[in-house]
Amino acid sequence: MAYSDELRRTLGGELDAIREKGLFKEERFIHSPQSSDIRVEYPGGSETRDVINLCANNYLGLSSHPDVIAAAHKGLDERGFGMSSVRFICGTQDVHRELEGRLSEFLGTEETILFPSCLDANAGVFEAVLGPEDVLISDRLVHASIIDGIRLCKAQHDTYKHANMEHLEKKLQQYADKRSRLIVTDGVFSMDGDLAPLDRICELAEQYDAMVFVDDAHASGFLGKTGRGTPEHFGVMGKIDILTTTLGKALGGASGGCVSGRKEIVELCRQRARPYLFSNSVAPPIVSAALKVLDILSASTERRDKLEENTRFWRSALGEAGFAIKQGDSPIVPVMLYNAKLAQDIARDLYAEGIYVIGFFFPVVPAGQARIRTQLSADHDIPTLQRALEAFRKVGEKYGILGLDKKGIIAKYGT
Ligand SMILES: *Cc1c(COP(=O)(O)O)cnc(C)c1O
Questions:
Q1: Quick one: what percent of the chain has pLDDT higher than 70?
Q2: Sign of the four-CA dihedral 234, 238, 240, 246
Q3: Cβ(314)–Cβ(308) under 8 Å?
Q4: What is 66-299's CATH topology?
Q5: Catalytic residue among 190, 260, 279, 377
């Protein structure tokens, strides 16, 4: 059908419906490099404002780190801008293989394969390895890209209640006759900042002869004593059969992802994974910068230690100020507001106070679970966080939510 006036009206109507529900996402323009302090232009506003950034995945503050930028320049000079090819035709440079080796070493896995993004890694890995004789058993809150990957895979699929090990065990028993069982989870859940209980998951996997898949996008580089991620935090490095992660968050923040784990699984991805076979190689400047990031992280734990210190300060400060925050061990600290409009209003007022945060609401989080997700970075310092705290306190007071728990906030504002 041609793009008729009728179709235009239909699609326009869908956009209107999104706006009317207050769910329309506007993008803000950032006029500076990514950092803990950025210059932002709000939609509709003609002025920019310098703000403290509390919503980037720039956990280690490496997105604009001078050594990382210098390494990217070096990669650009020595290996060029782009590959103009997928990996298996003429898109594999020495540095791609070097980075795959270094990632395996860092993550404590047998082998690694780069993908254009972690979304692509998740989209490609299941279909490449599993078939109708297998079953995928996933946590109900896994990342959207994992759900896409599962949809593309012919294996049977079932879910277990979020982080509920009794439920997972039941499912493992239920599928005992399958060729293989793959437990699928995020390492850190990005909306709540809680961790999957990988120690228990690995025990169950052993007991019921299952494999374990972990997406560690929100953990690689900083969780665990030396930043190796959720498996290190739980003492199960080497036991994860498939680990996916991103170079687009703590590990430099540009783009690129990988599947890391059992040798044969990684090799099957090289042979069959469609986003690997049919999408361009990761650009040389990114590869070069990622190698530098791994150098930095292997030389010292200073950055992840600083992030941990900032996280501890921020969690206790917000809690003491009377905000309803989600408890956890990660630098993702959600301030619960339950009501979508309230979350947006508070985010707007915080912006006026020089604090950059975003309200999250349905469909990004379940309806009635609206929140402002704050994220810490090693780039923050305590005085900066203290300033941010003052702004939060001022705005929290204005809305009369300090000291209120879930019930109190919902009684006042509804969901
Ligand atoms: C961000 C994220 C991804 C996507 O990573 P990209 O490399 O940006 O595609 C995948 N999984 C999880 C859990 C994420 O948080």
A1: 100
A2: positive
A3: no
A4: Aspartate Aminotransferase; domain 2 (3.40.640)
A5: 190
